[in-house]
Write a structure and sequence with these properties.
Elements lengths: L1 E5 L3 H13 L3 E5 L2 H10 L4 E5 L1 E2 L2 E2 H10 L6 E5 L4 H10 L3 E4 L4 H16 L5 E4 L2 E4 L4 E4 L2 E3 L3 H12 L7 H8 L9 H13 L5 E6 L3 E6 L1
Parallel strand pairs: 1-2, 1-3, 3-6, 6-7
Antiparallel strand pairs: 4-5, 8-9, 9-10, 10-11, 12-13
Helix pairs in contact: 6-8
Length: 221
């Protein structure tokens, strides 16, 4: 998935970006609200991690503006304020959750999973299509009863296909889901990862189909 991290502490922002990247997530880290607004114009994010006190403004005004604009991307606020009134205010403005600094990364990671599950209307992370079971949180893939090993980018690519079976995803969209602004890659990279996924799905009731001129979609054989 692709996250937008709005955090003016360079050290914390880099640490969080690196930790999420280990799980295969794409993170665009910005330090200013202006940069965040520019990023949102270009990319549709699965999750926004928002600091409150930023050099060019208050994160709460940014949150309020996004909700007024009907932006439904889930937002987790990173805040140093632990007072009940502050937390209630953030939730009332439209935050999906918050975490108080300093925090443990494992807790933040768990809160991200919980928020994404709620937005997806699911109680768990495992999804089934044909005779394939995929758990995006653990990267577990079971094909016709056999466990398959996945690399991080393969996990994130399957995450996209399982989010909307039968929907066509363009190469450009898949690039946005798998790579950040700072990564210089071509559409050929998508072809490589789709090829790897196809091999993992061999012998199953699911397949990744090429729709000429449009992209790819997951279908039942």
């Amino acid at each position: 998935m692709r996250f937008l991290l709005i955090e003016d502490n360079q050290q914390l922002g880099s640490a969080l970006s690196q930790r999420f990247a280990l799980d295969g997530h794409v993170v665009d880290h910005v330090m200013l609200l202006e940069a965040a607004r520019d990023a949102i114009k270009t990319v549709s994010y699965d999750l926004i991690l928002l600091d409150i006190m930023l050099p060019d403004g208050d994160g709460r005004s940014f949150l309020k503006h996004r909700r007024n604009a009907a932006d439904q991307a889930p937002v987790i606020v990173l805040t140093a304020r632990s007072e009940v009134s502050d937390r209630v205010g953030l939730l009332d403005l439209g935050a999906d959750d918050y975490i108080v600094k300093p925090f443990d990364f494992s807790e933040l990671e768990a809160r991200c999973r919980a928020v994404l599950r709620r937005r997806g209307g699911a109680a768990g992370n495992a999804k089934t299509f044909a005779n394939v079971i995929f758990d995006s949180s653990t990267g577990a893939l079971t094909v016709a009863g056999q466990d398959k090993t996945l690399r991080n980018k393969e996990i994130r690519l399957l995450e996209v296909f399982f989010s909307a079976p039968a929907q066509i995803f363009s190469k450009t969209h898949l690039l946005d889901r798998l790579f950040s602004f700072s990564e210089d890659v071509s559409e050929n990279a998508i072809e490589v990862y789709v090829g790897r996924i196809r091999k993992k799905l061999e012998g199953s009731g699911a397949a990744i189909e090429t729709v000429r001129g449009l992209g790819y979609r997951m279908v039942e054989r």
